[in-house]
Structures are given as C-alpha cells and as structure tokens.
Amino acid sequence: MNTQELITLSYELYKNMQYNEAYNILIKNKTFFGKDSFLYNLLFSLASRLNKIDNAIFYLKEAIIKYKMWYPTDSLDNDADLDNIRDLDSYKELYLVNEQRGLDCKYSGDKKIDIFVPKEITSNLFFMLHGNSQFVEIVKETFNSTTINNHIIALPQTREFSSYLNYSWRNSEFGLEVVNEHFQEVISEYNVQEENITLAAFAAGSNILLSGLIENKLKAKKVIFFRPWFPNLAKFDSQMHLLSERNIKIVIACGIDDQHGLPIANNFDKILTKYNVKHKNIYKVTNNLSNGLPTNAKEIIEDSFIYFKEKN
Prior knowledge:
Elements: H1 3-15, H2 19-28, H3 37-49, H4 53-66, H5 73-77, H6 89-105, E1 113-116, E2 125-129, H7 136-142, E3 152-156, E4 160-163, E5 166-168, H8 172-189, E6 197-202, H9 205-214, E7 222-226, H10 241-245, E8 249-253, H11 261-274, E9 278-282, H12 297-309
Parallel strand pairs: 2-3, 2-6, 6-7, 7-8, 8-9
Antiparallel strand pairs: 1-3, 4-5
Helix pairs in contact: 1-2, 1-3, 2-3, 3-4, 4-6, 8-9
C-alpha cells in the first residue's frame, strides 16, 4: 500500500467515525509512512482521541523531534482530537518546539522553477502556477510537452510552507513577489512577447495569478484557471474591468460535479460577465478535476487554444 492509498483509506475510516479501524490501519502500515506529516498528524490525533495517551505523545514527539516536522499552531489548537493531551507538560513542550520551527521555516523554500524548452524554436510560453500542497514535479507529469505542444513550459514553485513540506500560497503578496520574479526572468531570457504568453493556475495558485493580472505584473492575453479557488473574490470586483480593457481572454475549467469548486467557478464567471471580460467555461470536464490535476488536461488545453484563436 503506497502513501496516497493509505491516506485515502485511513481518512475515509476516520470520516466514518471508525476510529479504531483507522488507527489500526495506520499502525499496521507505519513502515510505509516515510516522513508523511499528514499521516503522522492523523496517527497522533487518533491515538489521543482513543485515549492512548502515551502513544499519542510518542508519535507526536517522533514527528516533531525525530523527523523535524511541524504543523500550523491554529491546526493543532482547533483539533478536538488532541483535547486529551493538550494540558500535559510533554504536549506543551512539543507545541513550543513546533511553533518556533513554523516561524523559522514558513518562508524557507528554495528558489525553484522547472523549465522545458522544445528542440524546435518557439516564441510561445506556457507559465503555470501549482496549487497548495503540490510540487512542480507532480504538476510536470500532467503539464508537459505531451500536453502542450510548441511551447516553452515554465512551472515555478512557491517558497512558502503551511506545514512541513507542505507548499502554500497563503501569503498572496509574498507569493506574487516570487512568481513575478520568475516570470520576469523567463520572459527576459527567452524574449517572449505578451501576445505569445499563456498563463495558467490550479486551485490556490489562481488567487496569485488573478492578483498578478489585476496589478499588471503578470501580463498575457490568454489565461486558464483550473478549478480556481479564491479566498476573497469580492476584493477584486471593482478592478475586474481592467482585464476587459486589456483584452484578456480567460478559460475557466472545472468539474461540473465538483461540489466545492463549481460554486467558486460560477461566481467567478458572474463577475467576469458583469465586467465584460471575455471568457469561456469548460464545465464538461470531470476527470479528477474535483480532487487534483485533470487527467484529460490535453483536451482542456486544446479547447482553450481554439477559443483563444477565435476572433471575438
């Protein structure tokens, strides 16, 4: 059983309140954890909920001290499963270590971007932002030269963490600074013109991308939002007309059965319509787009490029 399968199985049991079963599955497969902070979080939380106090402290200590993991303090504070150990001195000591590590590591990511340049010379650029908790290596498996033809493909990595090895775009100002730095370097090095740039983002990366478009730091005429997520879309409302004035064309791709993503996509659609921003919705796509990167990304890209070429 790989890590992702273990996460899916154990968390499903947890959601169904089968706490003993979830705990036992984790213990049985603990050798497969590696340094997965989510599985450790679930393990020490379940141990606490089941009143296995010594085990809960042991696994919390193993995560924080042995493997140097860390978790957002608000996540620990709001986890009712930890109420059985919260008042223990041993927990409080580990909490303080965890809190300090979070402060030290929050913005400690290395400068990193994956760039693919095709053998044949091209003036086209596809520049895409990943979602929360994603590595560019994973995004590259979906968005590559097989999916996107005749383009330089640039995939920057955020440098912010929300927890141990868990990349995040929580700080939008910091995130935009990181993205803009990469963007300017790429268009300068490869001499790419605005009309040949396609910008894209998945989930939480959408908030950074939209901020960059509004502030005119990320410049392109073609933009694709995959399952967009915005913590506060209303803050952009009064400035959305700028996208229309710059003649930007937008594609919104979202699974039509995505209960969480579709309402956000629909709201985004309404605001774009309100300000006459040219856009198209691709809501027929459902293949994995409610959970992760779409398995049929090539189809979405092809449909998007056809729309971008239309004269309207």
